[in-house]
Amino acid sequence: MHGLNSEGNTIQPWWLEIVAPGQWGEVVVEKGNEVIARLPYVLDKGKIEMPPLTQTLGPWMKPEIRDFLPGNKHLSNQKEIVSDLLGKLPKHKSLRITLDSVNTYILPYRWLECNYYPTFSYRINNLSNPDKIYANFHNLAKKNINSARKKVNVAESSNPWDIIGLLHKTFKNQGRKYPVKDEIVHRLIESSISKKSGKLLIAQDYEGNLHSSVFIVYDRNVCYYLLSGTDPIYRSSGANSLLLWEAIKFASSVSKCFDFEGSNIESIEAFIKQFGGELITNYVISKQTFINDFIELTKPRIKRIIGYKN
Hints:
The chain has 2 domains: about 15-120 and about 280-305, Aminopeptidase, CATH 3.40.630; about 125-275, Gcn5-related N-acetyltransferase (GNAT) (Aminopeptidase, 3-Layer(aba) Sandwich), CATH 3.40.630.30. Strands 1, 2, 3, 4, 5, 6, 7, 8, 9, 10, 11 and 12 form a 12-stranded mixed β-sheet that branches. The protein has helices at about 15-20, 75-90, 105-110, 130-135, 140-150, 160-175, 180-195, 240-255, 265-275, 290-305, and strands at about 25-30, 35-45, 45-50, 60, 95-100, 115-125, 150-155, 200-205, 210-220, 220-230, 255-260, 280-285. The chain has 10 helices and 12 strands. Helix 1 (about 15-20) packs antiparallel against helix 7 (about 180-195) and helix 5 (about 140-150) packs across helix 8 (about 240-255). It is of the alpha+beta class.
């Protein structure tokens, strides 16, 4: 549903039409009359880029294509498929796609003159036993969950503004502007809930103050921790930890695994790590001009100098 996963569920057209209206398409590889691989893409002003609020775009291949074959024939097959998919993409000035973690054979992209680098997330790969999951939480996470239970009530909401407002407060507290248009977030939440693919959870105290909100999207295979916002005033209440635990418990009833979606921000990574997920790698592949390569290389250093958190 959101991105691609190891079970082979591709991103849904309705999702792409919300996050990249009129800008998306897909290329496929066929064998006989059967589609054996597909790669969605978003083309914006001549650039193939990741759409907002989307962790990965693929490519999807039939699961058996990744199964071992003598002489590593399966890798040769994947190489041909990757070359075919990228060769079918529309004309573009630059390319930047985040691959799902199932795509571990990255060398073909290098041979097609793409650069690649890893990004990371955490994932609970087995949701069948919530008690065991909780037992693997860091003591600090358990402490915050127990503390929050005394301060807030958790409820389900269908009002996107219950989280949009907190997203703006969270980013304003960091001296930044939330980078996604409210309209996109609003439509994505409403559509996901109506399709029974999303859930918005909120935590309010007994005076009605909204402490924190969490929005997850899910299919039968993966539940993604997509959005989270906390009012800076109530940052110490532990409400976000409680909501995350409630989200994981719900995910155990509808999905096989829970993906935290990761972060490059050290404090956020430290928070997510408390919940016991396994570290996974998603590779970003890119192909652009030398000047843009140089900009990308120096951007993290410049951000550190000016104190910008990304």
